[in-house]
């Protein structure tokens, strides 16, 4: 069985971008693959996190995995910091990487541009991400379009390791959805939607109350025209809303264009809001049940045990090949 590894940072509330770009694929892939899904809290602290919020967000992301349909009996779901091998291989991977490789990363450029003093962790982020993936010798990594570049670097690091220390690490492939790989922000069609945005009106959170969802979609930026047409270059905001509509309604883009011909943006946005509400309502219901059940930590412990078994073995082999003196 081929192996899958992916993760989401506990850096805020999951958005519809995280759902369409990544999480919904987790649910599909677990039927045919051996899956490891992580809540990557060590990545989340690459930007400052309030301790209470970090804990809550980590639990919330984990509960949303299960609420969205990740099955703890099919997939190993774990918190990254519960498996210390991630931090250890993360360090090793940064020593294999070159400054220029990290400097080219657009995520680093985007995120560091918004801050006065830039944390080193934001810079070395791709080294830790490479470790996350390579520890499991993953074949496939379901991610959104924004993580393609980091995955390319992971592949380079795996190949570099294999050249220096002998063929051992699996060179992973990205698994990116055809539709919805880059959901854009509600207030700016040139920025990707991000859960850590300081403006909550820029994202649709999976746990937003129905009325909040309706309000955010009503307020979403559109252009000054009135035609519901898919044209990402000239109408990026409307096209983004159409992508979300298509995913949540299972209607094709063509069908949506036909349905709203000559009607303007009002009815389109109103119906879109109802489709989004209908998509998230059952997930929100299950989320509440999971958080109330007290089962979450049991699932996470079970996931961490399975993950650590695989990760520790890989780390040991890597260290042996690199010439570390192994303890007796
Ligand atoms: P942050 O702002 O803290 O970076 P984020 O929303 O970008 O949060 P991540 O935890 O960095 O979320 O990424 C989790 C997964 O969601 C990754 O696979 C990423 O590619 C995917 N993803 C993130 N944003 C989007 C988006 N706007 N559209 C599609 N996929 C996305
Ligand atoms: Mg991100």
User: What share of residues are in beta strands?
Assistant: 5-15%
| Rg calc | 21 Å
Biggest sheet layout: 3 strands, parallel
What is the count of distinct domains?
2
Number of helices: 13
Mean pLDDT metric:
97
Low-pLDDT stretches are none
CATH-defined superfamily of the largest domain: HUPs
Number of strands: 5
CATH-level-2 architecture of the largest domain = 3-Layer(aba) Sandwich
Q: Would you give the CATH topology of the largest domain? A: Rossmann fold
Overall morphology: globular
Structural class: mainly alpha
Q: Strand arrangement, largest sheet?
A: 1-2-3
Q: What is the C-level CATH assignment of the largest domain?
A: Alpha Beta
Small-molecule binders here are: adenosine-5'-triphosphate, magnesium ion
Distance between the termini: 33 Å
Compact overview of the structure:
The protein is mainly alpha-helical and 328 residues long.
Provide a descriptive summary of the structure in words:
This protein has 328 residues and is mainly alpha-helical. The protein has 2 domains: 3-176 and 294-322, Rossmann fold (3-Layer(aba) Sandwich); 200-288, Tyrosyl-Transfer RNA Synthetase (Orthogonal Bundle). The chain has helices spanning 16-29, 41-44, 51-68, 85-96, 99-103, 106-113, 120-134, 148-165, 210-219, 236-249, 253-259, 265-293, 296-322, and strands spanning 3-8, 34-39, 75-79, 140-142, 173-175. The protein has a 3-stranded parallel sheet with strand order 1-2-3. Helix 10 packs across helix 12 (265-293). The protein starts with a strand and ends in a 6-residue tail after the last helix. The structure holds adenosine-5'-triphosphate (ATP) and magnesium ion (MG). Adenosine-5'-triphosphate (ATP) is lined by residues 8-9, 11-12, 15, 17-18, 21-22, 143-144, 146-147, 181-183, 192-196.
